[in-house]
Design brief:
One of its GO terms (molecular function) is peptidyl-prolyl cis-trans isomerase activity. The chain has 3 helices and 6 strands.
Length: 140
């Protein structure tokens, strides 16, 4: 397990992903991944992720969404490129910038249980309806 995940102190900077499987609460880690968080929050404020699908699901490993093309090929970044990766085996394609908290983990697990095709694409893709930013800037 990443030491970042185990050592990061709780933060009041949070978002709620409203999905067709229920809400998913995410605690953000701006200290450890400031550029990734800034990019994510700015795109959330623009409604960039609203009404997108979860386009890739690998049971017990990954639920991926937020691509407005619904293809998984990527989309806009406020920095124009990919972020720094902390997991060598992910080949510099992903950044860990928070964690799912509370009972909303069960909604995430439900997302991970959907039926997929041979390419890990859900047959009936769950949707990310909207993102609510609970606290940003000075949060006490």
């Amino acid at each position: 397990m990443s030491t970042v995940y185990t050592l990061e102190q709780p933060t009041k900077r949070k978002v709620i992903l409203e999905t067709t499987m229920g809400p998913i609460d995410i605690e953000l880690w701006p200290k450890e991944a400031p550029k990734a968080i800034r990019n994510f929050v700015q795109l959330c404020l623009k409604g960039y992720y609203d009404r997108t699908i979860f386009h890739r699901v690998i049971k017990s490993f990954l639920v991926q969404g937020g691509d407005p093309t619904d293809s998984g090929t990527g989309g806009e970044s406020t920095y124009g490129g990919r972020g720094v990766c902390w997991c060598d085996w992910l080949d510099r394609k992903n950044t860990i910038f928070g964690k799912v908290t509370g009972d909303s983990i069960f909604n995430l697990l439900r997302l991970g249980d959907v039926e997929t095709d041979k390419d890990d694409r859900p047959l009936d893709p769950p949707k990310l309806l909207s993102v609510e930013i609970l606290c940003w800037g000075k949060c006490g």
